Amino acid sequence: MPNFDLSQRVAFVTGGNGGIGLGMAKGLAEAGATVVIAGRSKTKAETALAELRALGEADFVELDVLDEASCRKAIDATAARFGRLDILVNNAGTTVRKQPQDLTTEEWRRVMDTNLTSAFVCAQAAYPHMKRGGGGKIINIGSMMSIFASSFAAPYAASKGGIVQMARALAVAWAKDNIQVNCILPGWIDTDLTRTARAQVPGLNERVLDRTPAGRWGSPADFAGIAVFLASRASDFITGTAIPVDGGFSVQT
């Protein structure tokens, strides 16, 4: 379908070497995009890169999301190599699971800078390339914690709430440049991060299954379709939105 065709488009995915990021990167590659995954270790990304290259053109660029200069350099290098940058997926993220009274300010800042500040820096770095190319798509990965509260995720929830509001602000500011900015709100997805959560939070697995109408945890593959939709012409009149991908968790009482 032409509206979903990403041929000749270049996508930059932070944290694209595994989990939800890789699930989205695969969807973009299958739709024809050239996909650049960005992270700190090429060795860690080799498996992901091999999977993506089986689908189309893909590459890796070194990126430390906590380093502003690294973010800007990686995005500029990608645009220079491929001659354009059409799609940015801000997916890199981390968390610290502690009760709020036990958090240090260093832990708070690390989560906020990884999840929120880096997304702003990458979006800002991508903006001139997208504007020059006549438009672009920015996809921020929020969380159901943008909607709900959890006692053990104060900085994570704050960062993910912030990324939704930031996307709305960017959507308004850059609409004139034909840049659409949207958020995906993952529910409980089976990744390395949530496997750790299941080990640390007693009863979490059972509560998730009971609350989720789909009756299962999500998988990274569940994000391929929404990534293609939000990166394609099919979503040209959709901007500033936050779309849950959660098996119905957020609508179940």
Describe this structure as you would to a colleague.
The chain is an alpha/beta fold and 253 residues long. The protein has one domain (2-244): Rossmann fold. Helix content is 45%, strand content 15%. The chain has 8 helices and 7 strands; from the N terminus they run E-H-E-H-E-H-E-H-E-H-E-H-H-H-E. The protein has helices spanning 19-30, 42-53, 68-82, 105-132, 154-174, 192-200, 204-211, 224-231; strands at residues 10-14, 34-39, 58-62, 87-90, 136-141, 179-186, 242-245. Strands 3-2-1-4-5-6-7 form a 7-stranded parallel beta sheet, sandwiched between helices. Helix 1 (19-30) packs across helix 8, helix 3 packs parallel to helix 4 and helix 4 (105-132) runs parallel beside helix 5 (154-174). It is globular and about 50 Å long. The relative contact order is 0.16.
What is the approximate shape? globular
The CATH architecture term is 3-Layer(aba) Sandwich
Main pleated-sheet profile: 7 strands, parallel
- Helix-strand category: alpha/beta
Distance between the amino and carboxyl termini? 37 Å
What is the number of helices? 8
Mean pLDDT: 95
Number of strands: 7
Assess the beta-strand content as a share of residues: 15-25%
